[in-house]
Amino acid sequence: MRRFHKSLVATGLVLVAASAHAQEVVRVQDYPGLGNMMLRVAITNGYCDKRGIKCEAKTIPAAPLGVQTLLAGDLDVAMAPPEVVIQAVNKGADLRIIGNGARNSNFFLMASTGLETPNAAKGYPAVMQDFKGKKVGVTARGSAAEFQLLDLLKGAGMKSEDITIVAVGAPNTAFPAIANKQIDGLMLFAPMDGFCEVSKACRIVVDPRKGEGPADLLKLSGAAVVLAVRADYTVKNTKALDALAGALREAEAFIQAPANYAAVFKIAQETGKINIPSGDQILDFSLRTGLPSYRFALEPAALQHAADYLHRTGQVDKLVDTARLLQLR
């Protein structure tokens, strides 16, 4: 009986431990390509594990879909540009923002080699005239890529009706579309810059990461891709979110240390390998270009600017006070 009792106690302890461990899983949105690099480094280097949580990367290729999945309860942390999060809040979603997934804009405008761009030498905004009447791809309709493309058009005195916007998905499906000249331009994220650089099938003509574009878009720097959670989740999972923030900050420090670049590149290869000729060259170019953006700290003024701009341009019907959304770690 004593052995049986001990066995029951041991079994009970195992079940309790397993249950506690299951409650500590944090499901975070990732994207194809380089995606959520701070999360990938945190997982690979064990920064989540040592803080008592299990971080799971969930690949969802578009920000609107990520926020929808978050609201449905099948994701704990969405990684999305503020335009998408604020649109959701404007429609009644009760969300909070805990930090950045990326500090700077990760979208840029590319032109196919088949598109003549006589105004490219003049830079932005003149180059936008070269896209009049053309097809321009974005990840998905209603995505931040589309919002920021519209920003570029408005800053150049153009309207959405001046082009045809086409949903082409993530880089793995977007690249064939522009390489085969099914579209004339593309507003997308890394590693599309690497694809353009190496393949020469396209070229970047407006790059907000380099200070190119309208002032309203450039002011998003500091809160370009945020980490959003449901408000009820923040109440019930404070310790888990604090642990996630600590893991991401440690990952940021690792990424930003120049001596660690080879290790960071290896993680990028293992988690987002590009299985085509010159794939590693493409990945290396994109990773080096995007490296400065991998910062967790968020600038509240940049987030509020996004809300102000969306309201001023009629994209949301009421002004969102982003201060009430912030639960920064």
Overview of the molecule:
It is a single chain. The chain is of the alpha/beta class. Helices cover 44% and strands 16% of the residues. The strands form three sheets. Strands 7-6-8-5-9 form a five-stranded mixed beta sheet, sandwiched between helices. The protein has a three-stranded antiparallel beta sheet with strand order 3-10-4, with helices on both faces. β1 (25-30), α2 and β2 (54-59) form a beta-alpha-beta unit. The longest helix has 22 residues, at 2-23. The N and C termini lie far apart (50 Å). Mean pLDDT is 92; it is low at 13-21.
Radius of gyration: 21 Å
The tally of beta strands, per DSSP, is: 10
Count of alpha and pi helical runs? 13
Major β-sheet profile: 5 strands, mixed
Give the low-confidence spans.
13-21
Helical content (DSSP H or I, runs of 4+): 40-55%
Structural class computed from helices and strand pairing: alpha/beta
Strand order of the largest sheet: 7-6-8-5-9
Overall pLDDT score: 92
* SS strand fraction: 15-25%
What is this structure's SSE topology?
Layout: H1 2-23, E1 25-30, H2 37-44, E2 54-59, H3 63-72, E3 78-80, H4 82-90, E4 95-102, E5 108-112, E6 135-138, H5 144-155, E7 164-167, H6 171-179, E8 185-188, H7 192-199, E9 202-206, H8 215-218, E10 225-230, H9 231-236, H10 238-256, H11 261-272, H12 279-290, H13 300-312
Parallel strand pairs: 1-2, 6-7, 6-8
Antiparallel strand pairs: 3-10, 4-10, 5-8, 5-9
List its salient traits.
single chain, 329 residues, alpha/beta
Summarize it.
Helix content is 44%, strand content 16%. By secondary structure, the protein is α/β, with parallel strands linked by helices.
